């Protein structure tokens, strides 16, 4: 190779580096633009306005044409921005969201609170069905429970992350309050109570004290329990207030759960990778190597880097007996240098490590 052509190659490599840097900035700006358009979309749908505003779009295109110094041609500029606006408009459209149903369960309430009420919410009978729907692209997001402050982890959700390519896009906490609901709202009339095993467990003391002779009948969900309570005058259901509204039941006794603070954490799953906000967490899963002190060694970089470990959970690895998968939530975003370096150090002590997502920390009142 001649000295001249190797000089040219280096020049091209340098120019390409500059182009890569600009592309990074364009990508960041495009995502910021889409996020702003999403926020406008939410406000528009809340106020009943149409998303499409042709006049505003045209004024954006005219304004940019007037500002364009070249060498980009006016025609190309227009084409590019027509596509950029189309992408923003698409992000403003109502989304399809799958959740662990049926309707009026706490997961449904969490999904409604997190997304826009005008989005389409689709109930599914199992957590796996929610994952499947988002994986296939039928729904853009899924909402699933992941842990309860009293009952602990929702193991099925954790296990599905092992196989799934979906990310955790967000978390959301919901204070769980169980009401005793019946057709008349009269406590004296109640002889049979329907509910899911979890609410029964969480209301044990109240039930023993106030309705010790009532027959307790387990159902697949609190919504199903509410439907059963509609069928007899002496029946009641333990369920949330959303079920009372949906099935037109009256509150015979409000907030009958034994613990004052009962909060469930839900995850929003999808393909988005949220940008750092300055107050984020990163969720990972890993399988340790079969060496003495493997877990200690795998976790040591977290302590050494001064990062807060927000959660540590373990589940049996199904491919091998007495081998475990660990789930860890770390303070910080995976794009932060400190988190990146910490994960790189952890890798040396893990057979397998997977980043499940980096997303904004949600407020919890628990
Ligand atoms: O400004 C608005 O009203 C928007 O909704 C944002 C936006 C855009 O991407 O700039 C998107 C859709 C509308 O048709 C007009 C403009």
UniProtKB/TrEMBL annotation:
GO terms for cellular component: cytoplasm. Pfam families: ACT, CM_2, PDT. SUPFAM superfamilies: ACT-like, Chorismate mutase II, Periplasmic binding protein-like II. Pathway: Metabolic intermediate biosynthesis; prephenate biosynthesis; prephenate from chorismate: step 1/1; Amino-acid biosynthesis; L-phenylalanine biosynthesis; phenylpyruvate from prephenate: step 1/1. Residues 96-271 form the Prephenate dehydratase domain. Substrate binds at residues 16, 33, 44, 53, 57, 88, 92. It catalyses: chorismate = prephenate; prephenate + H(+) = 3-phenylpyruvate + CO2 + H2O. The record marks 264 as: Essential for prephenate dehydratase activity. GO terms for molecular function: chorismate mutase activity; prephenate dehydratase activity. Residues 283-360 form the ACT domain. Keywords: Amino-acid biosynthesis, Aromatic amino acid biosynthesis, Cytoplasm, Isomerase, Lyase, Multifunctional enzyme, Phenylalanine biosynthesis. Its main location: cytoplasm. This is Bifunctional chorismate mutase/prephenate dehydratase. It comes from Desulfosudis oleivorans (strain DSM 6200 / JCM 39069 / Hxd3) (Desulfococcus oleovorans). The lineage of its organism: Bacteria, Pseudomonadati, Thermodesulfobacteriota, Desulfobacteria, Desulfobacterales.
